[in-house]
TrEMBL record:
Gene source species: Hoeflea phototrophica (strain DSM 17068 / NCIMB 14078 / DFL-43)
Molecular function per GO: oxidoreductase activity, acting on the CH-OH group of donors, NAD or NADP as acceptor
One Pfam match: adh_short_C2
Protein's recorded name: Dehydrogenase with different specificity
Keywords for the protein's UniProt record, in alphabetical order: Oxidoreductase
Family of the protein in this entry: Belongs to the short-chain dehydrogenases/reductases (SDR) family.
Length: 253
């Protein structure tokens, strides 16, 4: 039987690359996204639902539909997230801090909360959380994002311990800078905050990576598919960096 895969934040970027790669492997794919327009551009063969990953009501509806359509779930990719504000900690509004944690951390928690009973009942399953190398290092001017991504790793390790006895594995992927509009926006905001140019900020990020390169959404998707495969059957509780090896999370150039 083909894998049944749910990907939150699956309408664009890393999430869409995950969906496409799982589908190419023969999986049945269900994506959620807060943006209805990007969902409309995804294949009609995928199950789709628009909504906020940090909303308990939305996630209950998603899993009710999974129960009705598929009966259970084999793979959860808790991928939904937002960049949050770019500012020094003293300049960040509390509501912006809370919103960043809600989408990134609470979104992953809710998805795992509703996936766990399904997976425990079948005594199998895989949970992959999209964290970040910001969850392995500090990240100046990005306190809410770094806090959320560190917390996601703690959540993942706890899930691995709670669910392992039921044959369920949990891991996190820690991407570096991923090519695309999202990192372009982050770089532009950081350049503005530091009074410099996006080109200088980008060069600084690249200089802090051993391989002197950003990664692609496909690089991250490939790791997700591997972690969900039999080839990773005893890989659990791990953080896998897909970042070309970050030497310095805040390089100065």
């Amino acid at each position: 039987m083909s894998k049944r895969v749910l990907i939150t934040g699956g309408g664009s970027g890393i999430g869409k690359a995950m969906a496409e790669t799982f589908a190419a492997e023969g999986a049945r794919v269900f994506i959620t996204d807060v943006n209805q327009d990007v969902l409309a551009e995804c294949p009609d063969s995928w199950l789709k639902m628009a909504g906020d990953a940090s909303s308990p009501e939305h996630m209950r509806e998603v899993f009710a539909r999974i129960a009705g359509e598929w009966g259970s779930l084999d793979v959860l990719c808790a991928n939904a997230g937002i960049a949050g504000p770019t500012a020094l900690v003293e300049d960040i509004e509390p509501e912006d801090f809370r919103r960043c944690l809600a989408v990134n951390l609470e979104g992953a928690f809710l998805a795992a909360k509703y996936a766990a009973p399904m997976m425990k009942a079948q005594k199998s399953g895989v949970i992959v959380i999209t964290s970040s190398n910001a969850g392995l290092n500090g990240f100046p001017n990005r306190a809410p994002y770094a806090a959320a991504k560190w917390a996601e790793i703690g959540l993942m390790k706890t899930l691995a311990m709670e669910l392992g006895p039921y044959g369920i594995r949990a891991n996190a992927i820690a991407p570096g800078c991923v090519e695309g509009p999202r990192i372009d926006g982050v770089i532009a905001r950081e350049a503005k905050a530091k009074g410099t140019t996006p080109e200088i900020i980008r060069a600084g990020y690249e200089a802090g990576v051993s391989m002197r390169s950003f990664v692609t959404a496909q690089d991250v998707a490939n790791m997700a598919v591997f972690l969900a495969s039999e080839g990773a059957r005893l890989v659990s509780g791990q953080v896998i960096a897909v970042d070309g090896h970050t030497e310095n999370p805040d390089p100065k150039v």
